[in-house]
Design goal:
Length: 839
């Protein structure tokens, strides 16, 4: 019957069915059986895992109670001791359960020492240290005797550490009633007779109770030493040979073998002797491991000295020991605030050897927890090494757990924390969602552009520049990185503000960022906002700033040039003449030709005064047009000239334009009552009569520069200079009411040298020397200078006295240079002129 139950149990174990949620109060699933361990213990060893989302790995020890009462008593003793004894050197108990036919014990995942040879010398020495230390605890602190130490009762963790198990025979040294388990049940332990202590074999129980506590386990420790170095122990007589036992260990080993309990060394005495200088357990591996385990009680100077050499020591440790032993100890140090950058550096170095799953399991949880610490030194260390570990942290974890604590560094009172947070932003940014990147991170960085510390302002600008110019493969940002709206409305104003910073490196950094981000600037913003701020920096007192400004200006101009290539040639829409216009192209070809000549002049004029030449061409063409048509139909000719003046494109305007276009009244112009011979001369020449003071308005004009042709007087310059030391009769008569002037006698013709060019253009006709207000009823416009500064108007001094036309060229009145109003002769006037002194 027992054979059948064993068969069924083995079959269920192989398929992982034992305990799969059906075992009361046992939350682990029993997996595959470790066949190699069979026959070495009363327990069957299985792999297992916890029944929850964590799927925590475990080792499951299973005992079949149908094997008999003696075996069951030993197994039950082992379960009881596993539950009650807790020590870092004892196999860590997770959970246990007992049913009517089976006992289950779940422990940390381990491998029996008998199945895994520990080839590393450092791990072997550290293993003996841990076993001796644990036996000392059992003997001296718990007053117990283990009595079952061998390779089958020692287990190796993932870190390579040795853990003490096999607690089936453990019991008190002196019970008084003689009911100790090790007295009666040694026979149920496989292979126990081959390594039984002499006092057990001779059953000298009184000697055991009166002897040194732990002497029995001293013999068991010797058996372990022999099995580790020499292999299987077939009889106790073999233990007297050294074999492969190290020479430094051999003297201590011999002191564990005496049959007399009073002379035999206990595990505690062995530990003390083996750690002496030059002894077997005196090694860097053991000292480093011990320091890590006891670091919480070490002095600060000791910690500093230890951590300074930790980097070189880690390279000497086995990889498994570093991952599962040293790394957890270092994380504990960091968690409780006892570490610094060197400790974190050690964590990072060990983490490089981990795969993604191991890193997520061992490092990430602790790192995320460390971000919540209030210790500034710890937070500074995390920020300094952010780029080393943050790439392995999932983006969801960074966004929800890391970044909220990380962002507090921007507001920290310590400048070092703020600066380190800025630098670490480049490592965190690729893990952030687009909303967090553009909504939270960028705003925090822009706020630090105005930080009181100049170094922080400089580094913040550099960080912003790298984020704005992030390239795929170098700095991979989510969803395209910095958005256009964030760049235009958040970053650009911060850069313009930084260009005025008093600290030169800040200005240089802002210029460098502006140059790098030039393709992202709006061309209109560059022309209206950026270049006016950059211009003063071209003569900055610092050479690096000047050079950076030149590069930035070149980048900005290149951006504007590229944008201008995509713009239309002109934004002006051609204005179609009304169908009822009497001066159409079919009725008068001369005005059309004059307009074409004026347009060609505008297109070809590229230097200073080009606009003035174009305007003068329009004026002369208007005069020619009126003169050529007045002989046959004065009314139609005058109307055609007026229509030509009004037909200029409305959108080609100068914002400095002053005055309205002249309005020609054909009836008044042709009326005999308008002025007799002088009026006839005006009709032939097409020159308007004296005008009233101009109204400052926003009408259209024929020249396209915002000025009326009549602002030039439709006539010639004086002989003084090319532009005329002149004034314009369009400004005569002061008041803004058009009153017909009395006829004036004709003036003598001006000098031939002044009229020659204009006479040639007008077919030899002599233009009238006097102007009256009968020709045009509206005001004339003055002429703007070539400047971007708006002109101002002011009224001149009181009226000039009337002078004859013959003396008009020799008057002593002050004359204005440049673009003053031209005088073609006529009455004295009270002009409103451009104040050229303001340009």
């Amino acid at each position: 019957m027992s054979g059948l139950s064993s068969y069924l149990f083995s079959t269920l174990s192989k398929v992982g069915g034992i305990g799969g949620g059906s075992i009361p109060d046992f939350h682990y699933t029993v997996g595959d059986k470790v066949e190699e361990y069979a026959g070495q213990s009363i327990w069957q060893l299985h792999h297992g895992q916890k029944n929850d989302s964590s799927k925590q790995a475990a080792s499951i020890f299973v005992f079949d109670k149908t094997r008999g009462s003696s075996y069951t008593a030993v197994a039950q003793n082992g379960l009881k001791r596993m539950r009650t004894l807790r020590h870092p050197g004892i196999l860590r108990y997770l959970e246990g359960a007992e049913t009517s036919d089976t006992i289950y014990i779940a422990t940390e995942p381990v491998t029996p020492l008998s199945l895994e040879s520990s080839g590393d010398d450092g791990l072997r020495r550290w293993g003996f240290y841990k076993i001796a230390e644990t036996l000392k605890f059992v003997n001296e602190d718990c007053k117990l005797i283990h009595a079952n130490l061998c390779v089958a009762s020692v287990f190796i963790t993932r870190a390579g550490e040795w853990k003490l198990g096999g607690l089936e025979l453990i019991d008190v040294a002196a019970a008084g009633d003689g009911r100790q388990v090790y007295r009666h049940y040694t026979s149920v332990i496989p292979g126990y007779s081959l390594r039984m202590a002499p006092e057990f074999e001779s059953q000298k129980w009184d000697a055991v109770e009166r002897g040194k506590l732990g002497a029995v386990d001293g013999w068991s420790l010797a058996c372990l030493v022999y099995q580790v170095f020499n292999g299987e122990l077939r009889s106790s007589s073999q233990m007297s040979s050294q074999g492969r036992i190290p020479q430094t260990l051999w003297p201590l080993y011999q002191r564990l073998l005496p049959a007399d309990l009073r002379r035999r060394m206990t595990p505690g005495e062995f530990l003390q002797a083996a750690t002496q200088p030059g002894a077997f357990l005196d090694s860097d591996f053991v000292r480093t491991s011990l320091f890590l385990e006891n670091i919480s009680v070490k002095e600060e100077d000791e910690k500093t000295e230890f951590f300074s050499g930790l980097h070189s020591l880690i390279a000497e440790f086995p990889q498994t020991f570093a991952k599962y032993k040293i790394l957890p100890e270092l994380l504990k140090v960091m968690e409780f605030g006892g570490g610094d950058a060197k400790v974190l550096s050690g964590i990072i170095n060990i983490g490089k050897a981990l795969d993604e799953a191991e890193y997520a399991e061992l490092v990430i949880p602790s790192i995320v927890q460390l971000f919540g610490s209030n210790d500034r030194a710890l937070r500074f260390s995390l920020l300094e090494h952010m780029d080393s570990f943050i790439p392995a942290v999932p983006a969801a974890v960074v966004g929800k757990q890391v970044f909220p604590n990380f962002a507090t560094g921007f507001l920290d009172a310590a400048p070092a924390i703020r600066e380190a947070t800025v630098k670490a932003s480049l490592a965190v940014a690729p893990k952030l969602a687009n909303k967090t990147l553009n909504g939270d991170l960028i705003r925090q960085l822009v706020r630090l552009v105005g930080d009181p510390e100049p170094g922080i302002r400089t580094n913040t600008l550099i960080c912003i520049g790298k984020l704005c110019t992030a390239k795929e493969g170098v700095l991979d940002l989510d969803a395209g990185g910095i958005s256009e709206s964030s760049h235009r409305y958040i970053i650009c104003p911060a850069l313009l503000h930084a260009l005025r910073d008093p600290f030169p490196p800040v200005r240089s950094a802002a210029l460098a960022v502006a140059s790098a981000c030039a393709p992202r600037w709006e061309a209109a913003d560059i022309a209206r906002r950026v270049i006016p701020i950059l211009a003063p920096l071209l003569v900055d007192g610092e050479k690096p700033v000047r050079m950076a400004t030149l590069r930035a200006m070149q980048a900005m101009i290149a951006r504007v040039e590229a944008h201008s290539q995509t713009m239309p040639t002109t934004s002006a829409a051609p204005k179609t003449a009304p169908a009822t216009d009497l001066a159409s192209a079919s009725e008068s070809k001369v005005p059309v030709a004059a307009a074409d000549m004026a347009a060609a002049s505008m297109a070809s004029a590229s230097g200073w005064g080009g606009w003035a030449v174009s305007s003068l061409s329009n004026t002369l063409s208007g005069a020619i047009s009126l003169a050529s048509s007045s002989a046959t139909s004065p009314s139609v000719a005058t109307t055609a000239a007026h229509q030509q003046a009004m037909s200029a494109p409305p959108d080609v305007r100068n914002p400095l334009r002053i005055g309205n276009p002249p309005v020609v009244n054909p009836t008044t112009a042709s009326s005999p009552a308008a002025g007799g011979p002088a009026a006839a001369a005006r009709k032939l020449s097409g020159v308007p009569a004296a005008q009233t003071a101009p109204n400052i308005s926003s009408g259209n004009d024929a020249s396209g520069w915002g000025f009326d042709d009549d602002g030039w007087g439709d006539g010639m310059d004086d002989a003084d200079d090319a532009w005329g030391n002149n004034d314009d009769d369009a400004w005569d008569n002061g008041p803004a009411t058009a009153v017909a002037a009395a006829p004036s006698p004709p003036s003598p013709p001006p000098p031939a040298t002044t009229m020659s060019n204009i006479n040639k253009l007008s077919g030899g006709m002599t233009m009238a020397n006097t102007l009256t207000s009968a020709s045009f009823g509206s005001t004339a416009a003055p002429i703007a200078k070539i400047t971007t500064k708006p002109p101002t108007l002011r009224m001149a001094a009181p009226n000039k006295p009337n002078v004859s036309s013959a003396a008009s060229t020799t008057t002593g009145l002050p004359r204005r240079k440049g673009l003053g109003a031209m005088k073609l002769g006529g009455n004295a006037k009270k002009p409103a002129i451009l104040d050229e002194d303001l340009f």
